[in-house]
Amino acid sequence: MENEEHVQLSKGMTYVVSADLSSHRSLATNKVQLLIIDGDFLK
Q1: What is the pLDDT of residue 43?
Q2: How far apart are CA 17 and CA 28, in angstroms?
Q3: Coil, helix or strand for 10?
Q4: What highest taxon heads this organism's lineage (predicted)?
Q5: How much is the pLDDT for 1?
Q6: Residue pLDDT tens, the chain, 43 long
Q7: CA triple 20-22-26, angle to 5 deg
Q8: CB of 26 within 8 A of CB of 34?
Q9: Which of 32, 35, 41, 5 is nearest to 21 (CA)?
Q10: Which is nearest to 33 in space by CA: 19, 8, 14, 20?
Q11: Which residues contact 17 (CB under 8 A, 6 or more apart)?
Q12: Helices (H) and strands (E) in the chain — how many of each?
């Protein structure tokens, strides 16, 4: 995250990031499925 915080997720966990509040990057050591939902309807 923008503040250099690291969060480790396990199978079935989720996280939400606001486009206006922070930068983020997703990294994985194994194969994962990443679903990103973006659009004006989220405002």
Answers
A1: 65
A2: 17
A3: coil
A4: Bacteria
A5: 62
A6: 667 778 888 888 887 777 666 677 788 888 888 887 777 776 6
A7: 125
A8: yes
A9: 5
A10: 14
A11: 1, 24
A12: 0, 0
